[in-house]
Design brief:
Layout lengths: L12 H4 L10 H9 L10 H5 L9 E6 L2 E11 L10 E7 L2 E7 L2 E7 L4 E4 L4 E17 L18 E2 L1
Parallel strand pairs: 1-8
Antiparallel strand pairs: 1-2, 2-7, 3-6, 3-7, 4-5, 4-7
The protein binds nickel (II) ion.
Nickel (II) ion (NI) binds next to loops.
Amino acid sequence: MRGDPLDYGYVRPHTFRHKTESPRPPPNLIHSAILGAEACVDKVNLAQKFSVFTEHYKPKIVGEINDTYVKLVKFQGDFMWHHHDVEDELFFVVAGEMRMQLREDGAEREIIVRPGEFIIIPHGVEHFPSADAETHVMLLEPKTTLNTGNVTNERTQPVLQRI
Ligand code: NI
């Protein structure tokens, strides 16, 4: 086994989580083993991921970091007012232009978020995402986050597709 660089059978996660074996595998495989990941670590190309779906307001899971999902979503038109009781949400605009309306202290305002910019909506804050033209957004939010927050309606996506 030691002589064959393609045979990584000795870094199976169930083996590696509990004890360190010798010889040590390459660092990227240690990382993968600790995560319990089935596949090797690989990069994600946002343009490629955005090319494989067309629906609006249906987030897709493209990664996870501890208790957080990395999601991609396409916005076009209005979403809806909602809030999240416990989760904060990060919206990073990749392409297009997102309008985020907010209700704070009884007043409404809106923030335009453009490519290369992000906005964090703290839990409890009423917000209403929309976009005049198709807009591509990456989300970082706890795995418990429901897209429509405190509201359940035809836009609610309880189970998200992984792409
Ligand atoms: Ni939200």
